[in-house]
């Protein structure tokens, strides 16, 4: 069975920005995966991933984060990281209403991975997350890199 592709918009609860959303669904699917793209990307970039799972029983949902793809906002800009997290929370709530499901998986890549991770720690639906898939999440490493590099170079 093939996916039914739909495009729709939601309004961000924080500032009413219009966020472009997509779904790839099958009527008999039991599982739900919500994925979040990285910086400079858009939800349509993941169609190969969707095709790969075409025989699965997973419904896929994604959206273009503000300032990316077909969503509102200055390209590549957000006033705060928290806006990204709130947008994801709004999107997850909308998807759960559409799917009439409570449990879901989250996939995030790069900046989307960092947003997904923060959402999983703070989100209103965090107890309903079945699992996180983080692809190269944009996480900050807490160490003085220059000092470590200097010490490493002194060895040579």
User: Quick one: biggest sheet?
Assistant: 6 strands, mixed
For the secondary structure, the number of strands is 6
What sequence of helices (H) and strands (E) makes up the elements? EEEHEHEHEH
Q: What topology, given as strand order, has the largest sheet?
A: 1-2-4-3-5-6
Counting DSSP H or I runs of 4 or more residues, the number of helices is 4
Oligomer: single chain
CATH architectural group: 3-Layer(aba) Sandwich
So what's the overall shape? globular
Question: How many domain regions?
Answer: 1
> Would you tell me the overall average pLDDT?
92
CATH class: Alpha Beta
Q: List low-pLDDT spans.
A: none
User: Would you tell me the structural class of the helices and strands?
Assistant: alpha/beta
Q: Could you give me the name of the CATH homologous superfamily?
A: Alpha/Beta hydrolase fold, catalytic domain
Gyration radius over CA: 17 Å
Domain Serine aminopeptidase S33: 30-152
Organism: Leptospira interrogans serovar Pyrogenes str. L0374
Protein name: Putative lysophospholipase
